[in-house]
Amino acid sequence: MASHAATPSNGGLFVVTKLRLFLAISLALTWWTASLLPSYQPMIKASFKSRIEEARQKIPSITVDWTPTADPRAAYDSAKLAMIIEPRVMPHLVPQLLHMIAVVPPDWRFLFIGSQESVTMMGRSTSVKHQQIVGKLDLMVLPDPWDISSKEMVYRTLTDMRFYNEFLPGVEWLLKYEYDSILCANSEVSLNEWLDWHWAGAPRTADDRFSGNGGLSLRRMSAIRKILQFQSRYNDTAPEDEWFGQRLYITPGLKVASGLEGALAVENVYMDKPMGFHVQEMGENLPAEVWGDHERRKTMLDYCPELYMVMNAKLDRERCPGDSKDGGKCLLLCLLVWSLKVPLLMP
Questions:
Q1: What is the pLDDT of residues 295-338, one digit of tens each?
Q2: Per-domain residue ranges for the chain?
Q3: Cystine design at 265: which of 152, 276, 293, 304 (Cβ 3.0–4.6 Å)?
């Protein structure tokens, strides 16, 4: 018996199925929606604009400076400057400078004024070059007729109003330090906490009416300019810090260090945990009242190990046998050791 495939009865092209019915209804709804769209288009646009405006108002305001200054020094406070004047070529000047840059607050700039030789030496250091590139440091050789070849010539420079007008315009706070001074990283006090003082330094005596030793001192340029406006220093007289001190102390309205009040550093008078030290001539002229006691000396060096950077200290193994470590060396033993090492010179 032959088999036949099942075919829909009364089949044809117009058989209604669920799929065809669904497609027809969908097409009708689409046409109907499309016919309504033109009438609702203005309302839709207005709704979109309203929502976009609401979102725009919630975006925080941002200002972008597409033309930044080309001078990297603008990143620092031009009113704050740390300065050293040193014409001599000394091997510790580079590490001393980099240490001071690390300890002084970051908004301060630095200025090294030296001879052609000392500036060339400083400029060879890669670390120093980096500080110049980022605008933190300037190296300067003063043009003629400025002269810094001796202490007296430096005194004359620092008591000349033209120096501040020409080379330190806009500076209000000046930290002046020397080759034999250092700030201590362990200090709990920031240099910026001294900004209300017109002069702060180190006392020469415990009752010093003006604690203003200039080897490590903070100075307000407004006070310096006030003095230089009506007074001039005679050549070959008092050092510049003493000369300023004699006048600043009696000037009304100025806040200057006196005794241990406002003392920034230790030099001739001991002070516990100072902000810094000034060791005259790198330790060649140390006051016994401060440095004579071995335990106190150890305490200071433990607190401020950076002192080794600016001091000519000898190792313990280099001491003579029996050295008391308090300055009272066994002279006879030292002479004996020396005589064994050095041939006796006869006339």
A1: 999 999 999 999 999 998 766 666 666 666 665 555 445 544 44
A2: 72-313, 318-347
A3: 276
